[in-house]
Amino acid sequence: MDLNTTDTTLKYCDWRVEIYNCHHTQLWVAEIIFSTISYGILAISGAFIFYCRVRYMWQGLFVDHGGTGIRPLPVDCLLLFFMIAAFVRAIHSAFLLGDVYTAYWQRELGEEFAWTILSYGAVTYLIGIIYTIPVNYTRGTSALVSLQTNRETTNGDANKSSTPNALSFTTHELFLPTPNQLNICLLVGCLWPSLIALPSAILSGLARDRGDFVTASKFTTVQYSANFVFDIVFAVITAYYGLNFILILRGTLKQSKQKSGASFFKKNSSQTRKAFHRLKYTMAYLFYISSYSGPWWLVWAIAHKKIIASINGINVYLSIMWYIAGPQLMIVVCQFVLARRIYQQLFSRTDNGHRTVATNGANGPVSPKSPDSVFFMNPSSAAANHLAQ
């Protein structure tokens, strides 16, 4: 673990799995230290948030979807898997920093296993969100979704201003898989990194332990090509359903305001508006991180030997993305919105402005209340109820 090795003994290292006795060892060590600290903090905070979620708002990880499928609860699955991934990532970084690993296959396993767990969280969240799109929109394998817009009409007097006294609707078709199809997608999404990327990483490490660097490079190509395919497909599906579901919820808010009146809407739409914003931020960042990282996985799959053969801009940039500006930001965003939701659940404001802990007498904390009973008169209410929790 000598950080001051003479230049004659230095080599160009694959900083994913080794950081000592290399060119720019100090840089790799600094990045690993940041990775260990940041993921360690996220793992601890995630564990605390998950404990609060289980203690006060727990509904399980998977529920029966009316006998037609197994629906993952998106919020709880995302929080659990991201917490586990942060723990794994922190441990892997600490092991690299302490030079604990004794074989390359161990290093490759630690490197890829965290990404696999992150994939589980992303897939279960996305499938759970698609499940929440109301089933009464479905017409066979597709759905017709009416999106409300205001249409201004006049009474024929040019001197009088236009007033929005009518509603117009635009209708477009939204593909909604059946529950069985969603369960197949969930299975494929979890098995893809588990049966392709993760085994390829281990096989690459085993080949490197034997000194067969050519075979190791081929398995690395397979590993990150699989990650590229996963991220691009995930980004496309996230963009499609994320945008459509946001439009559905926004239409729900508009229709509720139109039917219920502005004052009643303002008083009772808080849960849905907050759910709308949580969905918007989470889906946007999931799309961003997958669409951004996917092409770089392909670059690494094709040119990883050339990239690590010298200290160049792409080499340093990818190492920073790997250890400093990677999933940490995504995990922070998810933990923040969930912590805020838990805080809002635990503390409610009474009419005189005093905060009270939401409890259910001797039976402990209350479970989240359904917004359906508050103001929803629209099929999208079930979706908002799932998201609000």
From TrEMBL:
Supply the alphabetized keyword list.
Membrane, Transmembrane, Transmembrane helix
Query: Does the keyword Transmembrane belong to this entry?
Result: yes
Q: Which domain of life is it from?
A: Eukaryota
Q: Which residues form the signal peptide?
A: none
Q: Which residues cross the membrane?
A: 32-52, 73-97, 117-137, 184-207, 227-249, 283-302, 314-339
Q: What is this protein called?
A: 6080_t:CDS:1
